[in-house]
C-alpha cells in the first residue's frame, strides 16, 4: 500500500473512521470512501435522495447492533468532516482523497491549498464586491480552487466540472457545506459530455442535490 500523506492532521482521523467502516462492512477503503461521499450528499439533499441512501445501506452498512454498524460510522465521519472544515477552513475531503485514496492514480494530483489561495488572491478582488460573477473550474478536483475564490467573494456563482465521479461528489459536498451558490457537474468537459449534475444551488438561496 502506498504511503499516506496528509496536509491536515484532521484528515488522518477521518480516514481512520473510513477504515473502521471498511472493517465493519467488508469493503475496500476506496469503496467505503465513495459510499461516504454518497451518504454525505444524501445528508445535504433535504430528503430528496432517499433512494440513493438506501442503496448504500444495502451494501452491508446495516449489519450489527445500533451504534456499531457501518452506517453509524459513516454518520460519525460526516460530523467529523464538518468539524474539521470549521476548524481548518480547508479542503479536508481533497486532502483525504489524495493522501489515502487515489495516491495519484490517473495523474490526479490536486493543486495545494496554499497555491489555490495565492492564485485566488491574484485573480479576484480580495475586498468583497457588490457585483455578482460566475467562476468555472472545468477540472475542479475536489473544488478547492472554487473554495479559495469563495473566501474573497462568497456571493459569486461557482461551477465545478470533473470527469471523475468522486471529484464531482467532493465538489458538491464542499459547495453545500460552505453554503455556496452554484453547480457541481460530473462531466467530460473536453468531449462536452454531461454525465450528471450533482449539486445545484439556486439564486434564491435554496439548495438541492440532484443526480
Question: Explain this structure to me?
Answer:
By secondary structure, the protein is α/β, with parallel strands linked by helices. It has two domains: 9-88, no CATH class; 107-208, Vaccinia Virus protein VP39 (Rossmann fold). It is built from eight helices and five strands. The protein has a five-stranded mixed beta sheet with strand order 1-2-3-4-5, covered by helices on one side. The longest helix has 19 residues, at 70-88. It starts with 8 loop residues before the first helix and ends with a strand.
How would you name the CATH homologous superfamily of the largest domain? Vaccinia Virus protein VP39
Estimate the mean pLDDT confidence: 89
Q: Tell me which oligomeric state these chains represent.
A: single chain
String of helices and strands: HHHHHHEHEHEEE
Tally of helical segments: 8
Task: Using the alpha-carbon principal axes, give the shape.
Answer: globular
Largest sheet: 5 strands, mixed
Could you give a short description of this structure?
With 211 residues, this protein is an alpha/beta fold. The protein has helices spanning 9-25, 29-43, 50-61, 70-88, 92-101, 113-123, 144-150, 165-177, and strands at residues 134-137, 157-162, 181-188, 193-201, 207-208.
What key phrases describe this protein's structure?
Rossmann fold; 211 residues; alpha/beta; single chain; 5-stranded mixed β-sheet
Write the layout of secondary structure elements.
Elements: H1 9-25, H2 29-43, H3 50-61, H4 70-88, H5 92-101, H6 113-123, E1 134-137, H7 144-150, E2 157-162, H8 165-177, E3 181-188, E4 193-201, E5 207-208
Parallel strand pairs: 1-2, 2-3
Antiparallel strand pairs: 3-4, 4-5
